Amino acid sequence: MRRLVAIYRNPTYSPLQHLANDQAILDAVVARLERGGWDVDRVLESEVERGHLPAAALYLNMAQGPLASEQLAPLELDGAVVANRATSVLRCHRHRLVGALRDRGIPFPPTIILPAEGDPPPPAALEELAGRRVCLWVKRGDVHAERPEDVVAVEAGGVGAAMRAFAERGVPWVALQRHVPGPVYKFYAVADGTFFRCYPPRDGPASVAPDEERLRDLVFRAARAVGLDVFGGDVAVPDPASPVLIDLNDWPSFAPCREEAALAITEYVRREVTRKRGME
Fold it and tell me: Is residue 279 scored above 60 in pLDDT?
């Protein structure tokens, strides 16, 4: 019997409606694989953190915290297929993501990463970061935003207070980021390109973003830069010829297009298992 382990995200990283949506996409993929003959172990991220990690040929990984990722990282050397790999998840933490994208030349807003408990940059540095904008963004600098207070727009004089608010919530890092003007498009994708949706949030996934191929190229370059299999995020388009990635998330909920995404993810991991066995 082929065995897989489905790792469900810690509720800390999926508050409010995100928890049900995150569970739903993983449940949908697992159900399809079960019908195809896979034996399934369902575990929580918190269990993985404590070292509970059954042996399997395939791991569907929604864990986001560093403790679970430390337990999962050795699997990459043991011959198992892991979607998404722990090293890729950790690269999506914003304090690592900024450098990973910059090193690959991926268009991304100018960003400063700081300890939340530290001092804000001097006014001149904040003015340079903000550019021509009055406000800049203060975002949590570890995992991606899951609640409104994880992303706030402030004027330069309010950066210190915003950083303290993050520190009081136990967030270790903050990202100070320039605002990118223009329309914002949400995207969901699977690494082999069999599934890609990019659309204005107000219109839903049935709509199509202008110049979709250019956006697609940017999104997949970013995913390859960190090694993601299943991903989503947001792109801002200040100019049609110059889209800018503003967020990249490992294994989002795919809530607006869940059934189509579940089918694509299922087929993707099946092919990855077959490919891996062919290499052994």
Answer: no
